[in-house]
């Protein structure tokens, strides 16, 4: 009862009345005050509300969660934000692809060597008369 | 001469005088109006300037470029923004790791098989008396 009457984290932060049609309320529960504080600091409340109004209702939760992720990453790393995570992942992908290429080359070399020991053609194969 | 006198893309967008100490000017040249328009739309000019003032001067170019990357990604994909790229990269990493594990398993199986054909123990090894 108390929870449903208390304003959402966004309205509490912005010190405004939280109405039933509040666009923030479903995604910024009062128990997670940092989630709104972070997106407010990085994107601004009006940009967040613009994005929420721009996407379909069933996409809003994903939109808020990705904005919260980006905001947290930018607060932790003001220079690179979550683009830093993209760089790390891209470097890991390149490393793993190289490792896979090397392992595949080993496998091909191995199977070629094994092949030559499997098929014991007579040494005079071409001289057989 | 003209270029150095014309306001930077940020000051032109914000219709204000571009001074010599403009924090935006080194990173938002007039030739790239979209770069500022994008970060303004997603983060807001004041948040961008706050971030620029928060980081060291030699980090500002990287900060602006990562903000421009994030802003463009959010405009293209309002639901996931550049977090969508992170998900794609994470899925690629998982797929590649599985492929590497499978190739390593093949390599171990191959080398074990080859080993057993190399060493031709007599079939009555344990019954030899």
Automatic annotation (TrEMBL), chains A, B:
Residues covered by the LOB domain: 6-107
Highest taxon listed in the record's lineage: Eukaryota
InterPro entries: LOB
Family: Belongs to the LOB domain-containing protein family.
Protein name, per record: LOB domain-containing protein 25 isoform X2
Organism of provenance: Cicer arietinum (Chickpea)
């Amino acid at each position: 009862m108390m929870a449903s009457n208390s304003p959402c984290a966004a309205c509490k932060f912005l010190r405004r009345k939280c109405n039933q049609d509040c666009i923030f309320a479903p995604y910024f529960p009062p128990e997670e005050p940092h989630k709104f504080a972070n997106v407010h600091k990085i994107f601004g409340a009006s940009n967040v509300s613009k994005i929420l109004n721009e996407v379909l209702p069933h996409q809003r939760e994903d939109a808020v969660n990705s904005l919260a992720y980006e905001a947290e990453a930018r607060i932790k790393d003001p220079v690179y934000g979550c683009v830093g995570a993209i760089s790390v992942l891209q470097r890991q992908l390149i490393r793993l692809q190289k490792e896979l290429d090397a392992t595949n080359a080993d496998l091909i070399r191995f199977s070629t060597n094994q092949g030559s020991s499997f098929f014991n053609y007579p040494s005079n194969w071409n001289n057989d008369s």
